[in-house]
């Protein structure tokens, strides 16, 4: 998949002779797979939450579970935006990088990361990142015991 990620512009995926995906590579990488056959392909190129964090992840916020975990995908000029410092300045939110980084997707830079956000204005920060990112998915809430 590294060669595909670096050089392809479009991706076609067949499963048992049936076309299940036909889209730009950037669309393929930034979105969640709808077809089960796509999950293993994307697992090779999308960041995965490390097991030690995945074990602490809950679907809903509760007492002791107040650190949001999200997958954020940025492309092009947005890749170099100072995301973490903007979150700290605008919302007073602490942001931790849990997995991911910057890569070349086709002919442009892409940032595909999993982060955690915590602080009083966490909900506002989540909305802001969701609007800024080309793709955003709230994965859940970390519980600290």
UniProtKB/TrEMBL annotation:
Gene Ontology molecular function terms on file: ATP binding
Top-rank lineage group of the source organism: Eukaryota
Keywords: ATP-binding, Nucleotide-binding
Keyword Transcription regulation in annotation: no
Sequence ranges assigned to domain NIL in this UniProt record: 66-139
Family annotation (InterPro entries): ACT-like_dom_sf, NIL_domain
A Pfam cross-reference name: NIL
Name of the protein this chain belongs to: Methionine abc transporter atp-binding protein
UniProt source species: Lasius niger
Lineage of origin: Eukaryota, Metazoa, Ecdysozoa, Arthropoda, Hexapoda
């Amino acid at each position: 998949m590294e060669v595909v990620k670096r050089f392809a512009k479009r991706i076609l995926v067949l499963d048992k002779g049936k076309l299940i995906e036909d889209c730009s590579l950037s669309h393929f990488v930034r979105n969640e797979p709808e077809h089960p056959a796509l999950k293993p392909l994307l697992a090779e190129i999308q960041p995965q939450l490390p097991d030690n964090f995945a074990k602490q992840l809950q679907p809903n916020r509760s007492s002791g579970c107040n650190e949001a975990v999200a997958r954020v995908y940025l492309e092009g000029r947005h890749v170099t935006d100072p995301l973490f410092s903007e979150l700290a300045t605008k919302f007073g939110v602490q942001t931790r990088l849990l997995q991911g980084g910057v890569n070349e997707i086709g002919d442009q830079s892409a940032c595909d990361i999993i982060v955690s956000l915590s602080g009083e204005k966490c909900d506002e920060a989540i909305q802001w990142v969701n609007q800024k990112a080309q793709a955003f998915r709230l994965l859940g809430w970390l519980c600290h015991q």
